[in-house]
Structure formats: structure tokens, C-alpha cells
Amino acid sequence: MFLVPVLMYKLCPPEITDTPEAPKDAAKALEKMGPMSRDEKYMAGTMLFAVALWVSESEVGEDGPHVQGRKVHGKDHAVCRSPVGE
């Protein structure tokens, strides 16, 4: 498994290996994008919360994060009707 990246690097070496301007270009791009919008902040918070639940799953219990996630969104149970059997 470890040898695959090394082998690919040797068989197909990258064309660009030195990028001294990358940090400056990245800073310019971030400045051009501006500050995060309210929706972007909400999405980042949701993702951080999901990752925190995933990481703490062993301490909370097997179905802890799933139950907590449903409670956060106000859904204590899921209603699903299947067309099979109707």
C-alpha cells in the first residue's frame, strides 16, 4: 500500500515541483473572496459539529451522535412510508 504513491511518483513525475508564489497567490485569492457569509459560517459550524460528534462517538455511545443530531434538528423520529406493501 505504501509503495503505490512512490511508484506513481517515479512512473509519472509531477511537472511542477517548485511553487514559491503559491502562498502569495492563495492570500490574494482569499482577499478577493472576502469574509465568510452567514450561510458559509453556518455550514462550517454544522460540519465542525458533525466531526465533533463523530470523534466523540466512542465516549457517547454507538448511536449517540445519530440521536443527538436528530434532536438538534428537531426530529426525534423518522416517518417513512414505503410504497411496497400498499
- The run of helices and strands is HHHHH
User: Ends: how far apart?
Assistant: 50 Å
Alpha-carbon Rg, integer: 23 Å
- Portion of residues in beta strands equals under 5%
Q: Give helix % range.
A: 55-70%
Described by the principal axes of the CA atoms, the overall outline is flat
The number of strands is: 0
List segments where confidence is low: pLDDT < 50 over at least 5 consecutive residues.
none
Largest beta-sheet details: none
Q: Count of DSSP helices? A: 5
SSE-based structural type: mainly alpha
Instruction: Let me know the average pLDDT.
Output: 80
How is the secondary structure organized here?
Elements: H1 3-11, H2 22-33, H3 38-55, H4 57-60, H5 64-72
Structure description:
- With 86 residues, the chain is mainly alpha-helical.
- The protein is built from 5 helices and no strands.
- It has helices at 3-11, 22-33, 38-55, 57-60, 64-72.
- The longest helix has 18 residues, at 38-55.
In short:
With about 90 residues, the chain is mainly alpha-helical.
Keywords:
86 residues; mainly alpha; 60% helix
